[in-house]
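Predict the assembly for these two chains.
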Amino acid sequence: MKEISFRNDVLPLKDKLFRLALRITLNREDAEDIVQETLIRVWKECQEGKEIDNVEAFSLTICRNLSLDHNAKLEQRNVAFDEDVHDQPDTTRSPFEEMVDHERFQMLNALMNSLPEKQRTAMQLRDVEGRSYKEIAEVMQISESDVKVNIFRARKAMREKLQR
Amino acid sequence: MDYKYIEQLLDRYWECHTSEEEEQILRSFFAQKDVPAHLIQYAPLFAFAKEAKEEHVSADFDKRFAEILAEEEHSHETVRTQARTISFRKRIAPFLQAAAVVAVVLTIGGAAERAIGGAHQEEGTAAPVVANTYIRSERVAEVVTPAETKNEATAIAQSDSMSRVQVGVDVQITEN
């Protein structure tokens, strides 16, 4: 069992974790907080000498669960989550966003962000991060066929938007 | 140029039948400048997937995280030191318990032997004392000693057993 090095195996995952947290929470600041918390939790497991088969899947799972908890808390506080997304969009643009062809990218990004969480998470992990169906199933704690169904629906939605 | 292969891949992509490698092929294809007219509508989707991967944490993330990690490392070390102190005492406890058990068993065994051995005393035969020493229920030693008197039997049982004891001692006084 290969020993997990936090510095070499876990810390480099930060951007991947951030992209997932951002896709779920739709808020840059919250996503970064979640990444920090995820990294600390994984660090603690490493300290305890826990044997982790796939540290990436493990980290992504924690990240997603923290993101979902975050969203749930917002809902509980009677902040209408949907309203939050549309009325007060995260207008702070990262330098990266300034660079790319914003119109098309923003259109697809917004479309993807409007999909149900399972669909956009599954598509994020597959189309952006290139994870296998097996791994995505592990992270999302659903079956592989469920993963495929969600990705199918997400891709279909994106396709229909492009075909209009 | 024949785009049949790409078109097939695309059909399978919508059906979620493509592998990760095949999806990478699609992304590379659509990243080219000369994408045919009948396929161009899909280019933004594959460009989006590629570009979305460029997203990353803010510039000061590393610095902020290093501070948080340092705090965690410090508090974690404090907890660990406390745990080390406690576990030493906890580690001795089982041996103290085992010694107590041995003392009780031998005392009872001795008392029982005195009761049983009374008959042998009269006949003049020795009551063999069989002391089996067990380590985690595996018998590791058996001592059979003829004893002249019941007091001697008790003494032998005690001395032999004590030299080997680890966890449990089962003292049986057998009758002939």
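The mean pLDDT of chain B is 73. The interface with chain A takes residues 13-16, 20, 23-24, 41-42, 44-45, 47-49, 51-58, 61, 64-65, 68-69, 72, 76 of chain B (CB under 8 Å).
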